[in-house]
C-alpha cells in the first residue's frame, strides 16, 4: 500500500475511470452529495463496454435512488426494474422433513420491532425490556415449531408465493422491505443521463496510460485519443479489470473466497470429476 506524508489539498477535480453502473452511480452520487461544488469527469472506453449482466440488487439501492431525488415510479420503468422481495433457496441443504424438497426464503427485513432486552440479560444489546417477537419465535422453534422465524413473523414469503408486490401504495406503512431486479445496462444509461444533465462531464476514450507523481499517487490518465485528464482524486470503476487499483497501483482486490459458501465453477468441476467424490454439484448463484 502506498504511504504518504505531506499536506492534503482540498479536492477540486475528480476523475472516475469506467462508465458502467459503478462509474455512473459514483458520479451521480458524488455530484449530489457535494452539491456540484467539485468538477467530476467520467471517462469510459469506446473499446470495452459495461459488463451488462443481471442484476439483482440489495435494498440499499432504494435509499441511493431516493438520495438522488427519485421515487420508484420515476426510475423503475426506465430500467426495466421489478421488485425483489426475497431470495428463494431451493435444496441448498437436505434437511427437508422426510427428505422432501427443502426451501428457504431469505427475506430483506428491517427488524420488525425495536431491539429489546431479553429478560434477565442486562448485558445484551437492546432498547427497553419487553417481550421480543424474535425471542418469542425462537422459543417456539426450541419447542419444536418447524416454520422458519421469518415465516412466523413476516408476510414476505406469503406475499412472494401469491405473486404480490411488497408495497402498499395506499398504506405505505404496511410496505415490506424490498430490493430490485433490473437491467443493469439501462440503469447505467439512466444514471449517465442524470449525472451529465446535472453537470458531470463525460469523456469517451480508452485509458492507455496512468501517470504517477513523485509520491506514487496517480496524477493523470491518458486516453488513446490523446486526452490527458488530471485530477485530485481518481476513482477506479473499471470493473473486474481494476485498471487503476490493480494495474497501475498494484493494490490487488482482497479475495474473500475462503468465506464464501459457494465455489467457482472450475473448482466444482474438478471436485465433481475427482474419483473420490460421488457428489453431484450444481452452480448456485443469487
Ligand atoms: C454472470 C454475472 C452475474 C452478476 N450478477 C450480479 C448481480 O446479480 N448483482 C450484482 O450486484 N452484481 C452482479 N454481478 C457483478 C457485476 O459485474 C457488477 O455488479 C456490475 O455490473 C459491474 O459494474 P461496474 O461498473 O463495476 O463494471 P463494468 O460494467 O464492467 O464497467 C466497467 C467500465 O470500465 C470501462 N473501462 C474498462 N477499461 C477501461 C479503460 N482502459 N479505459 C476507459 N474505460 C475503461 C468500461 O468501458 C466500462 O464502462 C454479476 C457479474 C457476473 C459476471
Automatic annotation (TrEMBL):
Report TM segments. none
Give the UniProt keywords, A-Z. Oxidoreductase
Q: Decide whether keyword Oxidoreductase is in the record.
A: yes
Q: Which Pfam families match?
A: Trp_halogenase
Q: What are its E.C. numbers?
A: 1.14.19.9
* Example GO molecular function: monooxygenase activity
Q: What is this protein called?
A: Flavin-dependent tryptophan halogenase RebH
Q: Which species is this record about?
A: Stieleria varia
Amino acid at each position: 500500500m502506498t504511504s504518504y506524508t505531506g499536506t492534503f489539498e482540498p479536492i477540486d477535480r475528480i476523475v472516475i475511470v469506467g462508465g458502467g453502473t459503478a462509474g455512473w452511480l459514483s458520479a451521480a452520487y458524488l455530484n449530489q452529495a457535494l452539491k456540484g461544488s467539485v468538477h467530476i469527469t467520467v471517462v469510459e472506453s469506446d473499446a470495452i463496454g459495461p459488463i451488462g449482466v443481471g442484476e439483482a440488487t440489495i435494498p440499499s439501492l432504494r435509499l441511493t435512488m431516493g438520495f438522488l431525488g427519485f421515487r420508484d415510479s420515476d426510475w423503475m420503468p426506465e430500467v426495466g426494474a421489478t421488485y425483489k422481495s426475497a431470495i428463494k433457496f431451493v435444496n441448498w441443504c437436505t434437511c427437508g422433513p422426510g427428505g422432501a424438497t427443502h426451501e428457504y426464503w431469505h427475506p430483506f427485513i428491517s427488524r420488525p420491532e425495536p431491539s429489546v432486552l431479553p429478560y434477565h440479560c442486562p448485558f445484551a444489546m437492546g432498547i427497553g425490556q419487553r417481550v421480543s417477537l424474535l425471542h418469542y419465535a425462537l422459543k417456539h422453534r426450541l419447542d419444536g415449531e418447524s416454520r422458519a422465524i421469518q415465516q412466523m413473523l413476516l408476510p414476505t414469503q406469503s406475499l412472494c408465493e401469491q405473486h404480490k408486490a411488497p408495497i402498499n401504495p395506499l398504506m405505505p406503512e404496511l410496505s415490506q422491505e424490498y430490493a430490485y431486479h433490473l437491467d443493469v445496462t439501462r440503469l447505467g444509461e439512466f444514471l449517465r443521463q442524470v449525472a451529465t444533465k446535472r453537470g458531470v462531464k463525460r469523456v469517451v476514450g480508452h485509458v492507455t496510460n496512468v501517470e504517477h507523481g513523485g509520491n506514487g499517487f496517480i496524477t493523470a490518465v491518458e486516453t488513446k485519443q490523446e486526452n490527458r485528464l488530471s485530477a485530485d482524486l481518481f476513482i477506479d470503476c473499471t470493473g473486474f479489470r481494476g485498471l487503476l487499483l490493480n494495474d497501475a497501483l498494484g493494490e490487488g482486490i482482497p479475495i474473500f473466497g475462503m468465506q464464501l459458501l459457494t465455489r467457482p465453477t472450475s473448482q466444482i468441476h474438478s471436485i465433481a470429476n475427482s474419483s473420490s467424490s460421488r457428489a453431484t454439484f450444481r452452480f448456485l448463484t443469487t
